[in-house]
Write a structure and sequence with these properties.
The chain is α/β, with parallel strands linked by helices. The protein is 39% helix and 22% strand.
């Protein structure tokens, strides 16, 4: 999922971003309400994790502004306030769910997954297919034929991106940006290593090769012609 985290505490923001990225999500962050609105109105997020007490424009107004603009993106509000009145105000402003600080990170992940099941993903495609490969983007499961394939979060994100662009060559730089959210080449073989692991899990003995290397450029996923 592509997520926006709105949290003015920089340490908390970094923690949330790192944890969510480790689960395979692509994450943008904003430290205040104005920046949050600018990002949310110009990007197709799958969900927004929104702190209420943020500078410039508070979380209630951010949620309300998005709803008035016709944006149906699911919103999970985070707050230290736990009174019934605060919860009602947040839900009335347009939030879909409400989590009180301090919270367990596993609970936050579960709530984000639940929000993701309520609406189609950004591309509008919930299940991706190529040959006998099937990827359920909501349940985050992968199968090849009748075999379940267990992938790490980053491997899942890599396969998801390749399938969303099947038949199109993806450069290493593009994969770093879209899958790892890195705008520069760190001088490592992180992409190649993950592609190698993904191939081992997907392409067992006798299985048709799907992920192809384009020498000097990157990778493409496609069915081989007979």
């Amino acid at each position: 999922m592509r997520l926006l985290v709105v949290e003015d505490d920089e340490k908390a923001s970094r923690f949330l971003r790192q944890g969510l990225e480790e689960e395979g999500h692509a994450v943008d962050t904003a430290l205040d309400g104005s920046a949050a609105l600018a990002l949310a109105l110009s990007n197709p997020y799958d969900a927004i994790i929104l702190d209420i007490m943020i500078p410039q424009v508070d979380g209630y107004e951010v949620a309300g502004s998005l709803r008035r603009a016709g944006r149906a993106v699911p919103i999970l509000m985070l707050t230290g306030r736990d009174s019934t009145g605060d919860v009602v105000r947040g839900l009335d402003a347009g939030a879909d769910d409400y989590l009180t600080k301090p919270f367990d990170f596993d609970e936050l992940l579960a709530r984000v997954r639940a929000l993701g099941r309520r609406v189609p993903t950004v591309s509008g495609i919930e299940v991706l297919r190529l040959g006998d490969i099937e990827v359920d983007r909501i349940r985050r499961t992968v199968s090849r034929g009748d075999r379940r394939v267990e992938l790490a979060p980053r491997e899942f994100r890599l396969l998801e991106h390749l399938l969303l662009h099947q038949g199109q060559v993806q450069t290493r730089a593009a994969l770093l940006e879209k899958v790892w959210d890195m705008s520069f080449d760190p001088g490592t073989n992180v992409v190649d290593a993950h592609v190698s692991n993904l191939r081992k899990k997907l392409e067992g003995s006798g299985d048709q090769r799907l992920i192809h290397t384009v020498r000097g450029i990157g990778y493409v996923i496609r069915l081989e012609r007979a």
